[in-house]
Design goal:
about 190 residues, mainly alpha, 4 helices, 2 domains, about 10% strand
């Protein structure tokens, strides 16, 4: 008896013609098909993790890019003390959300790097993870101290050099945005 079977291996499919199978050969074929189905399930989960990670990091990059090149320019153009008050409010709001987003992104990239270690793009994922670690270090050492001060400022209590401190935060933020854009690009290329 001639039997044909389609065998799935990762992203590849192969049609195999088998002739006069005995019971042992049929059992081997059935086991191979089950393992292939299991491999397909793992591939689907890994692809979902990769897509989810790229989306989470990409949206984070978009928010930080918008803060740097859109929102802060809008706030700086407002009259009187409105811009400084808007930055203080933004510092409070984003200061509560962004640490979770940065660390969550880093965890997702670490899981991707571990589970996809043997994939061709693993080096890109590890490099992206290193860049995200750098962005967290930059945040903690350079941006958070300024943000923690500026989010409490009002026109009555802000220091005399508040504009210089805001400009310093902006420069550090531009650098951080460049780092996370590079990390995002590597993740997109690895996927």
């Amino acid at each position: 008896m001639v039997i044909a079977a389609r065998v799935e291996r990762g992203r590849h499919s192969q049609l195999i013609y088998l002739a006069s199978l005995d019971k042992r050969a049929l059992l081997d074929l059935a086991l191979l098909c089950q393992v292939s189905a299991l491999d397909f399930g793992v591939v689907v989960v890994l692809n979902a993790l990769e897509v989810f990670t790229v989306v989470v990091v990409g949206v984070m990059v978009g928010v930080e890019f918008a803060v740097a090149f859109v929102l802060n320019r809008i706030l700086d153009g407002l009259p009187d003390d409105s811009g400084q008050l808007g930055r203080a409010h933004g510092g409070r709001m984003l200061g509560a959300v962004m640490p979770v987003w940065y660390i969550g992104s880093l965890v997702l990239v670490a899981v991707w790097a571990v589970t996809g270690w043997r994939d061709p793009g693993a080096g890109l994922v590890v490099t992206a993870g290193a860049l995200l670690v750098l962005s967290v270090i930059m945040s903690i050492l350079l941006l958070v101290p300024i943000n923690n001060r500026s989010k409490t400022w009002t026109p009555e209590n802000r220091p005399a050099d508040w504009k210089q401190q805001i400009n310093r935060w902006d420069r550090f933020h531009y650098g951080r945005v460049a780092v996370i854009i590079a990390a995002f690009a590597l993740l997109a290329a690895a996927h």
